[in-house]
């Protein structure tokens, strides 16, 4: 059974429709990358999966349960974490940022400090900056903080909106390694990623989006075997 399932999702901004029936599913331990050119609706989809905006039609399900009408914060408690941008609480220290997420929620009976220390142990750079205000972190360190929060939430499904943007390859490599590790412990991950090369390095499957729908699904091996296909999909139908 899929951990995260999106069916027939439609919606947009007021009169502007952006999504036209998106279907996708991510299984336990699977990493699925969603690729596509600028403006096709990837972030809009993430916002609807996260519960930040409501679809006009369609369904979002987590572990078989319809969560389409469930508010965003409650989705986190149900096991769906979303990484959007480099959110951090500026004046709070790195450690206090993590403490805010170390609540007991039924699936998590670890004491708070142990969960915080466990997440810091995964990111030595963050551990070295634990008492520093989050506002002083670099872009890559903020992404580490966001992922460290996710480790504390221990999600069943994780949706990440473009974390490679503007980061040095070595930082992206470290973050991708963590995504692989989350996959290895069964987390279903949907990764929004403009770079097909980055997506191919971490995903089990790549979905390609155009004009608000998924137009193709391929494994990295299929794309490696067919460079023409990959080029066509990367260019979003604009290839000659
Ligand atoms: N708040 C908004 N109000 C009106 N239109 C919006 C709003 N946010 C996004 N859009 C429009 O919706 C469409 C899809 O945007 P979205 O951010 O989902 O695309 P994307 O695939 O994530 O693009 P990118 O890769 O550039 O981030 C775009 O045409 C965009 O201009």
TrEMBL record:
InterPro entries: AAA+_ATPase (IPR003593), ABC_transporter-like_ATP-bd (IPR003439), ABC_transporter-like_CS (IPR017871), BCAA_Transport_ATP-bd_LivF (IPR052156), P-loop_NTPase (IPR027417). Residues 1-236 form the ABC transporter domain. SUPFAM superfamilies: P-loop containing nucleoside triphosphate hydrolases. Keywords: Amino-acid transport, ATP-binding, Nucleotide-binding, Transport. The keyword Transferase does not apply. The keyword ATP-binding applies. One of its GO terms (biological process) is L-amino acid transport. Pfam families: ABC_tran (PF00005). GO terms for molecular function: ATP binding; ATP hydrolysis activity; branched-chain amino acid transmembrane transporter activity. PANTHER family: HIGH-AFFINITY BRANCHED-CHAIN AMINO ACID TRANSPORT ATP-BINDING PROTEIN LIVF (PTHR43820:SF4). Belongs to the ABC transporter superfamily. This is Branched-chain amino acid transport system ATP-binding protein. It comes from Actinoplanes digitatis.
